[in-house]
Amino acid sequence: MMQSKREPELIRPEIFKDTGSIYAWFTCKNAELYNDARNISGLNLGFNTREEKEVVNENRSELLNTLGIDPDNIAFAEQVHGNRVQMVESGGTYGNVDALVTNVKGLSLAIQVADCAAVLLADSEQGIIAAVHAGWRGAAGDIVPKTVSVMNSLGAKVSQIKAFISPCISQKNFEVGEEVAEQFPREHVDYTNYRKPHVNLKVFLTDQLNELGLQAGNIEIDEGCTVDDADRFYSYRREQEKSGRMLGVIRFKE
């Protein structure tokens, strides 16, 4: 396997930097660093892709080494596009869940996406973090409010929670059928400017966080569109089965 000559491009949310204890990252495609003989070029981190498991394992291992994360101390969600939230206390892969919450110092949480949003949440004062996979099903199924509720049950305070919404599909590219559009409030669906309805996922998620009581200044929204920016991001809508997966990762420092 070709080894990268420099560290991969990562998005580091600004919203957590002043906490001194929360570390978060969102991976980019990095096709120029990982473009040898592979089924999917780039830093593909998803096992649910056409790539060989060995390649994905090596990609994950190299990423975790770059981030300084112990492979035994990171929790992954085996996502099913649902709204189930899991409280976790150790590393591993957790089945049939789309959001992870922990209050264990040093434990990292990871969510994989390719058009859906990764929502990373943290109350640094109480030492509680969460990672959420928010596609249209999970978003419409209130996975973000459910996750915040679990955080609250552990002692998190909404006024102290900070949130990052990752690059994801933009409204102009998120064409849906009526059966999907009707799952969202009308103010989050454009019925007039396109042939079919278009959902604004980022604004919907932001409004949910606002309604839960998060302060506007505690929410960071990345403007990137996974469909439009083929150089930086994977997109299932654009690439279908040729798409890889990116990771949103969050950790509370030991």
UniProtKB/TrEMBL annotation:
Pfam families: Cu-oxidase_4. One of its GO terms (molecular function) is copper ion binding. Keywords: Hydrolase, Metal-binding, Transferase, Zinc. The keyword Zinc applies. It comes from the Bacteria. It catalyses: adenosine + H2O + H(+) = inosine + NH4(+); inosine + phosphate = alpha-D-ribose 1-phosphate + hypoxanthine; adenosine + phosphate = alpha-D-ribose 1-phosphate + adenine; S-methyl-5'-thioadenosine + phosphate = 5-(methylsulfanyl)-alpha-D-ribose 1-phosphate + adenine. SUPFAM superfamilies: CNF1/YfiH-like putative cysteine hydrolases. Transmembrane segments: none annotated. Belongs to the purine nucleoside phosphorylase YfiH/LACC1 family. This is Purine nucleoside phosphorylase. The lineage of its organism: Bacteria, Pseudomonadati, Balneolota, Balneolia, Balneolales.
